[in-house]
Protein: Glycoside hydrolase family 127 protein
Organism: Halosimplex litoreum
Amino acid sequence: MKPVSLTDASIDDDFWTPRIQTVRDSTIDFVYDRLVESGRIENFRIAAGEADGDFQGRFYNDSDVYKWLEGACYFLTTDSDADLRERVDELVSLIASAQEADGYLNTYFQLVEPEQKWTNLHVLHELYCAGHLFEAAIAHSEATGEDSLVKVATALADHIDERFGPDGYRGVPGHEGIELALVKLYRETGEQRYLDLAEHFVDHRGDPDSRLKYEAFHPEEIAGDAYDHVVEDGEYDGRYFQDHAPLREQETVEGHAVRAMYLYTGAGDVAIETGDDELVAVLERLWENMTERRMYVTGGIGSSHEGERFTGDYDLPNETSYAETCAALGSIIWNRRLLQLTREAKYADLQSRTLYNALLAGLSLDGTRFFYANPHEMGPEGHPLHDEDPNRFAAQRQGWFQTACCPTNVPRLLASLATQVYASDDSSLYVNHHIGSEATVVVDDTTVTVEQESSFPWDAESCLTVTPAQPATFELALRIPEWCTDVSVTVAGEETEATPGEFLHVEREWTAGDKIVFEGSFPVTFVRANPNVRSASGAVAVQRGPVVYCLEGQDSPRPLHQLRLLPDGDTVVDHDHELLDGVTTLDLDALVPEESCWAGGPLYQPDSETTVETTTVRAIPYYGWANRGEDEMRVWVDAESSQL
Amino acid sequence: MKPVSLTDASIDDDFWTPRIQTVRDSTIDFVYDRLVESGRIENFRIAAGEADGDFQGRFYNDSDVYKWLEGACYFLTTDSDADLRERVDELVSLIASAQEADGYLNTYFQLVEPEQKWTNLHVLHELYCAGHLFEAAIAHSEATGEDSLVKVATALADHIDERFGPDGYRGVPGHEGIELALVKLYRETGEQRYLDLAEHFVDHRGDPDSRLKYEAFHPEEIAGDAYDHVVEDGEYDGRYFQDHAPLREQETVEGHAVRAMYLYTGAGDVAIETGDDELVAVLERLWENMTERRMYVTGGIGSSHEGERFTGDYDLPNETSYAETCAALGSIIWNRRLLQLTREAKYADLQSRTLYNALLAGLSLDGTRFFYANPHEMGPEGHPLHDEDPNRFAAQRQGWFQTACCPTNVPRLLASLATQVYASDDSSLYVNHHIGSEATVVVDDTTVTVEQESSFPWDAESCLTVTPAQPATFELALRIPEWCTDVSVTVAGEETEATPGEFLHVEREWTAGDKIVFEGSFPVTFVRANPNVRSASGAVAVQRGPVVYCLEGQDSPRPLHQLRLLPDGDTVVDHDHELLDGVTTLDLDALVPEESCWAGGPLYQPDSETTVETTTVRAIPYYGWANRGEDEMRVWVDAESSQL
């Protein structure tokens, strides 16, 4: 299947439209100002010879400019905005001016280590930055119809292909991302070399004579410093950047979570283009490992801040969970490739889980504050790693980061959300997500307009109106999310059998205005984690529809550690239009210690002298936490045992 | 009341005798060898001019030599041991040789900073080391009848009194300990100045013009470095060494736990001598704060490794609990003073709790491995602070520490344990502890021999035989521990009313061979912590008699985090003579997740799809953990809620 393009789709959704609007009205400007303030744009000006000065910031700062540009262009694709367009035009022109005659473009190396280009792939992110340029260029072309940035991109891509292609020395990027971008550029330009290079980057990771390994052992030959953390006791451990084995031999998701997601996404893109079933099987195997061993219930991934990485099976600490916002984005885009490749609903279910929870939690409701790392529990004393890095490890979202990957990533995903909703192939139209929207796709040579109204994520109701240009027979595949019960689907008034967790396939002749009405329930689900997950033992998470809930201290009559939820208790579901820009809340029954038993202030006493009483606590969606001041928070809450 | 002296008491107890014997046969030699190896004894040799070389180790290393000497002398008090006596004699002679003509004695200053003596009270432990010399000297005198070391002690005490007494500049020690030692020396010598100086040190902590504060702000005037951690944002915070307010105004136990315990002990000694009721009330208030807010269920105190100190109310983390073995010793000796002052059984109860649990856990069963910090939980990955200090934060007891306070402290306490058991005053004989033993005390001019047989801590049975030199009327006060039920006491065959948690007072005419037979039960008690204790929420600890239990992984059918104990379940109590040198074990009922529910390997699933099953897990005494290899361990175990 092929996703709908942004020019052919738009969102009109009670839940998502206000959020995307906030990103457009606030986040885009807010982030742009930070790019200016931090010198990220000035670096291009200096490289272009239009200003004097030294390179500012980190060696990957160009990527933030490209990512902002990509997001801004997505907005320009669907909306005209003269001011935004002017900033985009200026930036594109500046980027073009900064490019060297041979196509090279990376302001860090141009300004700091011009003689050392391409010598330090394992640390210095030249290929990663190039990939983000390619993505921005394609978005720019789509938004404006102009090829000015694509020309910059192809000149750089050609330069890279000369060096890394068949006749080059065939290193691979230390931070992936260029693979998927090269496939995008191949699709945009038809240039086979770009696809070949992407395939090369996918297939030559973990080579026995890995360039990344070589660099780690030869710091004297490279720009900047080598990573010492990839060498332990004299032995190379390439897991950090998925260089420990050829991808096709990898069995587990390893290392830096964002790198891993970008690699798998690029590999998925290669497989889409080449039909490489072996590669698909590898990705399915890695997906199983991730989802059955190494993923938070929110879809968050990469549990350790040390290396921002995957650790061992079932190691999912809550207070120190890293669950980087960018890794959530990476999972969402990887899952789109798996969905395209396999047409299995579970990948869209995981996209949905990750989008509504792990990703959305990264952005404040007002669009100007960000979590880089996403805790799944906040104690009354704040983040346990706060002293190590008060910016990344805080009880509240922050305005900016020296490494600003997350603030520049969320806008580009939300601005292009419409492309996630629909897809098509020769004979089918896929409705992957329940999001109010409209799209026009071509199925079997017929142009089909599809309109969707949806009350997700708060209620399991959607209505699709299908309007082919003329009556036509094709299949419509509607995803029935795994968390629905009591599902009823009528197609043009006719009841149809549907199974949660699968696509409902309806092949028929469609005529203008045919409606598919989906109705179901979102039961409140108390979720248990596998008994091997030490951090969730004895506890439950609460989910309703795709939304994972949490407790914040202010909604609880007691400190959160005193609560023991009653999964068999009563739950009151209510929609509060004011709270957190409108959320469905859950009032849950819980046991708490009877306070009178402790009135005298003893520190310890026999269990037999104590009793418990029932109370009620309000749960809110996890994504909405930390929008009402500093507070304690829990996703996993102690719960009474299930019955014997 | 006055405790029995070591010359008048001896232990003969199934539980304690083998342990004390291990300390005598192994620990004493093991520690001595470490003192030699580490240069601690050589420092004295160099200071005495008998050897060349540089001072080795830390500035408080003299104290370890004195503490070893004190413990060794306690053994010599009751047993002749030519080899040990020879080492003691040599050491005493060496110490005397190292003393300067004016009485000064501290090998660190003598060898490293001879011009800077007494300039850095807040860091450099001169007074603390002196205190330990005084204690060793008195033990030596008691053991040998010789006054050679007492002479050294009094010369140093006189030197100190000149400097810190009425005409001196009246600083106070940065690490307390000398206060209690000065009172001991006063009792030994009758020298009033020593008591006065102790009183001064007790009463001048927290002076507005604190010398400790002055030093912290004037690093240029002092030996070595100043502590930077007692100054925050330019403000002095003297809590670390209890210098934040005059002791009489202190409301909470603060700062370094060992320092606090030694101060309170010294203050108790002063109060015993002066009859200062105000001071007693202060200590009672501090005791309440500690026992109702800041103490582990094992009696361990000082929850944070940062500053080895008390933190806030109810802050009692399990995995990182510091609960220094020396702080447990400090609590035991402080509680003896409170017991002496008030005659309330609760202080002996806490001594007992601390002795069987927090203190004893610090020593391996073979007597040659030590915990400095005592965790109350060990996860499968080991100690979370391991990387910070693999020696102090380990999953197993260690052989030695650069700061070796704990290995030298445990022997001196256990070697003198007999002195804790009995006490007397003009009209009463107190039996404070149920430990098999014999003692001779004088009550109301009558010499009374008391023999005790006891099956503590495994069973609540003791039998006392009282033999006055001639029939005499006096009161015998027998402590009925708080954790006993079904108590029956017969005095010379007559049933007597007794209340757990109080002393049973029996005033009568005693004749030779009168027996007091105590019988009771030790129910298995599931203990809950105050709901404010976040780290114990939803969990129980298990106690039987004075013994707090724990679970080790090897005794559980499942990883410990999967267990949920059933306080209302069946418990099987069994005594295993082989296990851990003989312990009473508890087989406890617990719920665990039904494994078949998770057979497919899902990471998450609805609670409604899962069930639990019952199992049994064996609990062992906490003091015995980590004697069978590295393993996970928990004192607090998740438990089903009490009934509504």
